[in-house]
Amino acid sequence: MFNLAEILCLSGLHVTILLSDYTHHRLLRHASFDSRFSSYTSFRVATISDGLPDDHPRSGSRVVDIVQSLGEVGGPQFRRLMVSSDAMSDGGARPRVSCLIMDGMLSFPIPVAEEMGKNEDKLTFWKSKEMDLMVTSVPGMEKILRRRDLPSFFRVEDANDVVLQSIIEQSKRTRQAVGLIINTFEDLEGPILDQIGKHNANQNPYSIGPLHTHLKELQKAKGMESSHHSSSFWKEDDSCIAWLDSQPPDSVIYVSFGSVATLTRDELMEFWYALVNSGKKFLWVVRADSIVGGGIGNEIPVELEEGTKLRGLMVEWAPQELVLRHKSVGAFFTHSGWNSTIESIVIGVPMLCWPYFADQMVNSRFVSEVWKIGLDVKDSCDRLLIESMVREVMEVKRDEFLEKARGMANMANKAICEGGSSHVNLNRLIQFFKSTA
């Protein structure tokens, strides 16, 4: 969302980004948030409460509480914000809001927007027993998706499950949008984009990704210096770059399960044994809040401590894009969040996928079965299996994965260059925005 906001600012549009108070506080503490947008007079931040207590973890399985809470408290706050924005606009301080862009899971502004005569843009979604049966009811996915590849909130016994019903409601609202902004590119997901277009005939899909590299390309075209900006809830540990500098090329597997996924201590130990026993060097991001029920603890087996000292480094957070681009990194062990997936695709790094929830389940399947740039190890946390897969992605099938990954990286970079599909679609999107003003 920050990449998109900066792209829109560079395109001459006024942008207000709406954050929860919690998110805003974390960004001010740990991210280069203020400096990144300081030169854009057309950018501002607005905040509202997400309605959760200060000590709520907002991670792991509890992350869905944010969606449900904002569904209850977000609407009235958003209405007050919009009324005050319109009052400011009357005085000429800032143009009136002419378009809203929302994440598909957070549709609480829609009733307010309809009431006030606004338009919006968003995204979309889809239960199970025999997990390896194919899903035949999603057009274009008949030979790709198994039941285990669907998001976990569809794997319920009761159709009245609260989370499932919330997702269904969010999905229905997607059809009210006049367009879909999608962080992908046509060569990567052309058949899927075609299906989205058929499913939502009244909507215009704008695939303008990969957003993070598209932003860099726009900055270069305008003679601006592109620099690394953190948009993270966590303080980045740059010391890992110096450690990577001391490692041979393509020798390290980078391990990170993102900013939301949590592990049990048993899962942590299975991963740890797998990494140490693989004999490969590893850089592993272990957040302070990533272990359910507390930290790693003091009772760590000697073989893990010694193996990590010999071949590994563990940090609380890392500058991920810089790490993925480093010459010593040979593969990415990831939770398959879309930001991580698209960053890896752009750089051409093979992936080993252990998805946690939501779209990650589908993303990991595409990595292994459609794009064939890595392996999918979902629904399993066995040290022997993971050890074998680490060796496979780093050694046995490395050349095969690398060839396909580099080809995909070339396609990603062509998409954002002048005349490329994402470049053309961004121009269409900017013209749409300007026509609504």
UniProtKB/TrEMBL annotation:
Protein origin, superkingdom: Eukaryota
Report whether Endoplasmic reticulum shows up as a keyword of the record.
no
Name the Gene Ontology molecular function terms of this record: quercetin 3-O-glucosyltransferase activity; quercetin 7-O-glucosyltransferase activity
- InterPro entries hit by this protein: UDP_glucos_trans, UDP_glycos_trans_CS
Which Enzyme Commission number(s) are on file for it?
2.4.1.-
Q: Which family does it belong to?
A: Belongs to the UDP-glycosyltransferase family.
Q: What is this protein called?
A: Glycosyltransferase
Which species?
Salvia splendens
